[in-house]
Amino acid sequence: MGQPDTAPHLILIDGSGFIFRAFHALPPMTRPDGTPVNAVFGFTNMLARLLKDHAGSHIAVIFDAGRTTFRNRLYDKYKAQRPEPPPELIPQFSLVRDATAAFGVPAIELADWEADDLIASYARAATEAGGRATIISSDKDLMQLIRPGVEMLDPIKQKPIGLAEVMEKFGVPPGKMIEAQALIGDPVDNVPGVPGIGPKTAAQLIQEHGDLEGILRAASEMKPSKRRDALIEHAAAARISRELVTLRDDAPQPLPLDALVAREPDRAKLGAWLKEQGFRSTLLRLGLEEGGAAAAQPAASPTANGAAPASANRGPQGQLFADPPAQPALAPGDAFGTYESVTTPAQLDAWIAEATAAGVVGLDTETDGLDAMRADIVGFSLATAPGRACYVPLRHEGVAGQIPPDQALAALAPLLRDPAVLKVFHNAKFDQLILARAGAPVAGPIDDSMLISYAQEAGAHGHGMDELSILHLGHTPISYDSVTGTGKGRVPFAQVPLDRATPYAAEDADVTLRLWEVLRPRLRTNKALALYEQIDRRLTPVLMEMERAGVKVDADDLRAMSKDFEIRMAAIEKDIHRLAGEPFNVASAKQLGEVLFDRMGLAGGKRMKTGAWGTDASVLQTLAEQGHDLPVRVLEWRQLAKLKSTYADALVGQINPETGRVHTSFAMAIASTGRLSSTDPNLQNIPVRTEEGSRIRRAFIAEPGHVLVSADYSQIELRLLAHVADIPALKESFARGEDIHARTASEVFGIPMQGMDPMTRRRAKAINFGIIYGISAFGLARQLQIEPGEARSYIDAYFARYPGIRAYMNAAREEARSNGYVVSPLGRRCWIPGIADKNPARRGYAERQAINAPLQGGAADIIKRAMVRLPAALRSAGLTARLLLQVHDELLFEAPDAEAAATAGVAREVMQNAASLSVPLVVETGIGHNWAEAH
């Protein structure tokens, strides 16, 4: 803390914002006497971090004194719709004031005035005294105050908010935020604004007409439009809105500026208050109790039997925490890079005790490979607070005195099992599999910073640790390449010297914990908490067991299949050479382009940047539709080549020698829609309706005495379309169990369903499925091999019969343009990055994504919800069947012969009841000794 000088630097903390952020970020907690304290705990830690990282000469926390102010007299509906605070928050308001006093920070509030007005008034006082003010908040209402001498700091991202940031977000400078807010309004505060005007339109109007009055004067001269009418009709509402959003920097100041001088807290007073609340982890972190962080000593260990102390607080799902989790919503302030190498049992015990006392620990493993079913653990790292982490090497070459792996993991086991300690991973599934294979117990409870990010921003960016660290922490982690080298010079991680391995590995745990602190509180505000808690996090152990189970494949059948594909490819290649008039390398895109466009002179070729002709699938398909045989044969050859290399050959090499089975890895945070994907091998791309696809599925077999059971959602995306677009005819058809494609053909083409021509039904089917993906008339024409005009007439007739579908598509595109994302029926935000792309092709693709994402995302979340429920349902039914695979809308089980029918019945029941829609979900099941038979 600094002493005052002639140029004061005043730190103004938006206390009310801190309270609500902390309350919604943390799970319910109580102190020993039963008083709720989650908001108090979060506020306390946020204030402690702020005092540590942002020293000013003057400081104050500004609170709202009550629910009504002078603005309610200006406009009686102002904030009228706001609900009463939750009952468990009400007793915490006074405790938060006590927390502020315990830290020795002035707390300021004033009846009839909002905290924002007091902040404006004190910011003015600081600048008039020749100093500056820093407002700790990200509230848009305060951005109008930004000017030379007055800045804002986002308490989450720890980044300044200035002119550039306001311009980027709202399109106007801070000095015009009042005008913008008057136009936009604020539904949260019941500020009316002008209906239909958002930030983009407001910015455009302000740029054109200067201010609100200029806009309203010009409204009558604008071109006829809904915007013009709204401005004229709601002019009075805009003016009252301007009064409501204007912050009053002439508000009375309950304390003079001189009374806000920053002082060091009374350590005894602060320590006593923290003890009274039961905030032991904060005491330790602030060095106010023996063994605290300031003394660089680990906390005391728990009782011998591992039980939580009597003062423990209740956490999520009733789990016990020895202390509440570490502070929420705090961006990094502690240094990266100073970490400890742990090579003795005593050191490890001390770190485990410290993690136990902290109540939350970041965890990461280092391995000798990326296949969780084959890799061995090389070491693990722990982080107990930002900047406080260690690395425990287990199998490093040339490092004397390492703790034997079995001994280290046995010491770690109680921490992993401890229900009072939250374990935070980044990609928990991988680390848990590695630990489990090494003999450690499955950890619980856990959080996963990767999945927390994915639940909120699927499709917005990647969710790898390094990318998230740069994005949210402003820190670029040490790269794996910089530690191990690259190319031929790369060494295994076990050969990396400890002085280089420790900073890299410990930083991973540190970054994981920091990401959790930043991202976990946002789940509620981004409306992703239920999605994460009920689906994504609970799915992790289910997928772990699926990956451990693997699936059996017939190696002999695969080898025979590979030989068959090779023979067929050779025959096709011979035919390709005949059609070309000369031999060439069919696998060479360059040589193929020269044959097609230079020697054969086919029209429509385009050269790429390299100068070579483009010969991808779309080019060859277009040529094939023009009646050329050679591209048709090349497409057939490529399909067989891909199936041969990807499945027939690769699957044999992917059989795990320990289990005799193939173990795919399910990626949980890749697809923008929430869908799972799989790698090594990728089982999502096996052709569904071709002879070759069925041939590959025959190689997936059951163990002797067992069968495979397939359970597949029937037309789930079409059902979701009928549900979200609210199409009565389609919903009725699904309810009756009718042939939906025949019904569509009957509705669109005006012909009876009985005796329908198969070609007519096929056309309706192509439209039904094509609509989901935003198919164009050209695309439908190509698929049905008809003229584009005829295809257009089909699509027009379809939309004429089902106008709700066109309305849904338009709404989805507009939602994506307005928000940057669309929302699935179960609430997942699917971000659409290219929706505003200037390139028409990329923008068109993004618009098709916006249409399909809610449907595909809804289907993905429904099947994942079913997967979460199935293990318990199978156990409850006394069944031993194992869930092996998930491929899009299908689940594959392995069950004893005698349990096959019962397993199919349980799967059908759980899957059909996984979501409540306005149309029934239907699941088709099959049983067979191989996947093809079951499918």
UniProtKB/TrEMBL annotation:
Which PROSITE patterns is this protein grouped with?
DNA_POLYMERASE_A (PS00447)
Q: Which Gene3D superfamilies does UniProt cross-reference here?
A: 3.30.70.370, 5' to 3' exonuclease, C-terminal subdomain, 5'-nuclease, Ribonuclease H-like superfamily/Ribonuclease H, Taq DNA Polymerase, Chain T, domain 4
Protein name (database record): DNA polymerase I
Q: Where is the 5'-3' exonuclease domain?
A: 7-265
Provide the reaction this enzyme catalyses. Answer: DNA(n) + a 2'-deoxyribonucleoside 5'-triphosphate = DNA(n+1) + diphosphate
One Gene Ontology term from the biological process aspect of the record: DNA-templated DNA replication
Q: InterPro entries this protein is in?
A: 3'-5'_exonuclease_dom, 5-3_exonucl_a-hlix_arch_N, 5-3_exonuclease, 5-3_exonuclease_C_sf, DNA-dir_DNA_pol_A_CS, DNA-dir_DNA_pol_A_palm_dom, DNA/RNA_pol_sf, DNA_polI_H3TH
The EC number(s) this enzyme carries: 2.7.7.7
GO molecular function annotations of the record: 3'-5' exonuclease activity; 5'-3' exonuclease activity; DNA binding; DNA-directed DNA polymerase activity
